[in-house]
Design goal:
By secondary structure, the protein is mainly alpha-helical. It has 3 domains: about 70 residues; about 80 residues; about 260 residues, Type II secretion system (T2SS), domain F (Receptor-associated Protein, Up-down Bundle), CATH 1.20.81.30. It contains 17 helices and 3 strands. Strands 2-1-3 form a 3-stranded antiparallel beta sheet. Helix 9 packs antiparallel against helix 12. The longest helix is centred in the middle third of the chain and has 58 residues.
């Protein structure tokens, strides 16, 4: 039997200290969990006789809380007392089987709160996992907890789920573990994920209305020209020997759609499938990323978005203590544009050769001159992380301004386009009617 000296938090939030006897460290944690105590420190004691007296004294000071000694009961009791004592909200899943970005962001924020409250990683993971309502995320969290209890580090356990936790995520966690600042790093990571979700949500909300107008207009026009107009135009053709030019054009288009609409659907579906498969190849994805950067108006928005992600990610990594070369490698894999990723790889090669970060950025022309100057000043003053985050704010501000301007112009343009389509069909239908009416008079 061994003695372990511990410092723990009670369900009421107060801190207690004492010594407990157990066969090993894991058993000691289980016994403390059964009492409703949540250890912030646990180390083996080297005074067995004294330890027994302190353990008996501690049992009187901190009596065992209601709960069971099995693993499930401990986890549930731990989660309830944690919530009651520290008022930390446990994230709730959305009830689906798929784990989304917001689920990961919420998990990160709650994990950072529990670690800041000095809750050990296994207990924090158990509490979050047992309270999670998303079955897929619950299974992943409990799997990570089991890996940690078996001796794996938190970062290594996260790496076993690469689709959910990216290289950036696991790398920052590893740095936090090595530096002994995991709660702070988790907080920075949660801030980064929340900011990315916010920007992505703003762009999607801005694009929702124009895309809806365009999709609804195309659907309505296609439905009318495929199934409704051919019958009406056929009647007009039988009544008139010569149709007006707009009506004749509309008749040809609607007749073609009515006759070959099934083949057109198959052709469009096949084209989309082939294009999708091509874009999933390395060559196709790189060509698509290059095209996005060369678009007349949207190109600047895509570039600003990628560069803001580069600056914010690199700044967050530098702030967390990651050295420049590994950080650039992580950013290269997370920037989201293969063309710019190649340029960042060149920046990393230059930096590996002894150059500063600003020198290759200035040579390649990735950033504007003023931004490169800010990065240069940040390197000289030892405040590179702050300057990179400031650069990210500048690029994001420009991206948001350009996006708002584009959306403000795009919405009325699409409305005019849809109106012109409907107007052309109405005019094409009315012209022969007016012609017949004038002929009768």
């Amino acid at each position: 039997m061994n003695a372990f000296r511990y410092e723990a938090i009670e369900s009421g939030g107060s801190t207690v200290q004492g010594v407990i006897e157990a066969e090993d460290r894991r058993t000691a944690l289980q016994l403390l969990g059964a009492r409703g105590l949540f250890p912030s420190a646990l180390e083996k004691s080297f005074s067995p006789g004294r330890a027994q007296g302190e353990a008996r004294g501690n049992r009187e000071v901190a009596p065992a809380k209601a709960g069971t000694t099995n693993g499930d009961g401990q986890a549930k009791a731990g989660a309830k007392s944690r919530n009651a004592g520290m008022n930390v909200r446990v994230p709730l899943g959305r009830g689906g089987k798929r784990v989304g970005r917001k689920d990961v962001t919420m998990f990160t924020r709650e994990m950072s709160a529990l670690l800041t409250a000095t809750i050990p990683i296994p207990q924090a993971l158990d509490g979050l996992g047992e309270e999670e309502e998303n079955p897929a995320l619950k299974a992943i969290i409990l799997n990570i907890s089991e890996s940690v209890r078996k001796g794996s580090s938190f970062s290594s356990a996260l790496e076993s789920h690469p689709r959910l936790f990216t290289k950036l995520y696991s790398s920052m966690v590893r740095v936090g573990e090595e530096a002994g600042a995991l709660p702070k790093v988790m907080t920075d990571l949660a801030n980064l994920l929340e900011h990315e979700d916010e920007v992505r949500g703003e762009v999607r909300a801005a694009l929702a209305y124009p895309l809806f107008v365009l999709a609804f207009g195309i659907f309505t026009a296609s439905l009318l020209m495929t199934f409704v107009l051919p019958k009406i135009l056929g009647m007009l053709k039988d009544m008139m020997a010569v149709l007006p030019l707009p009506t004749l054009i509309l008749l040809k288009i609607s007749g073609f759609l009515h006759q070959y609409w099934l083949l057109l659907l198959v052709g469009v579906g096949a084209t989309v499938a082939v294009l999708w498969r091509y874009l999933n190849t390395t060559k196709g994805a790189e060509a698509y990323d290059r095209l996005k950067l060369r678009l007349p108006i949207m190109g600047s928005v895509f570039r600003a978005a990628a560069l803001s992600r580069f600056a914010r990610t690199l700044g967050t990594l530098a702030k967390s203590g990651v050295s420049l070369l590994p950080a650039l490698k992580i950013v290269e894999n997370t920037i989201g544009n293969r063309v710019l990723a190649k340029q960042i790889a060149q920046v990393a090669e230059e930096a590996r050769g002894g150059h500063s970060l600003a020198t290759p950025l200035r040579t390649l022309g990735i950033f504007p001159r003023t931004v490169v100057q800010m990065i240069d000043v940040g390197e000289e003053t030892g405040r590179l992380d702050e300057m990179l985050l400031k650069v990210a704010e500048i690029e994001e501000r420009q991206m948001r301004a350009r996006t708002k301007t584009l959306i403000s112009l795009l919405a009325p343009m699409l409305i005019v386009l849809v109106g012109a389509m409907i107007g052309f069909m109405v005019i094409s239908l009315l012209l022969p009617i007016f012609k017949m009416s004038s002929a009768l008079h």
